[in-house]
Amino acid sequence: MGPIIMLRLLREKLLEVLQAVAPLIVVVCVLQATTVHAPAALFLQFLAGSVLAILGMLLLFTGIELGILPMARFIGAELPRRGSLAAIMAVAFAMGFATTVAEPDVLVLAGQVAAASVGAISGQAIVVVIALGLAAFAAVAMARVVRGWPMRYLLTTAYSLMLALSLAAPARLAPLAFDAGSVTTGVLSAPVVTALTLGVSSVLAGRRTVSDGFGLLGFASIGPIIAILVAGMLLP
Known about the structure:
mainly alpha
């Protein structure tokens, strides 16, 4: 990639990041000026943190767009040529797990759980359970793309199981379980898993990229919910 293309990509991503972060900064500044009147040191710390967040998001989004997504699409397109459904599912599981354990939203949630429980619940254990749940359902969703299973049947089965477990699992874990499902569709795992799926569906005969390549994240996000509920039932 040439320097001109790189600069264009950086400029595009910077505009996206500013559009995402600017409303929050404006709201906090308005509240600071009119209502909350936080100490000057704390407000300056917020502004400095916002600048660092913008720079970090810029580098993260650029890196994902530049290298991670093209590689995920290439891997997805190559897998069907191996002729092994087990290999496709294994790769989907591995990539789903690897991206989820590095997902910033998942790490933040795990840290908050560990802090709120005063260490009674391990943040690392939460990350692993969430990652295993998403990885398992990503593998099943990939098999669905290859075999052409109707998504409505998978969703009906998964949601029925999730609701049943919600009634059977300890009540204190239900809110955490549903939060776990929401944080997995973050800035890293969502685009990588989607790119992998689009790569697979693009080379399969008789498949339509839009109908077969999407819907996976909605299905895969059920996995962490079920995983947390099951872990809560099995562990003391």
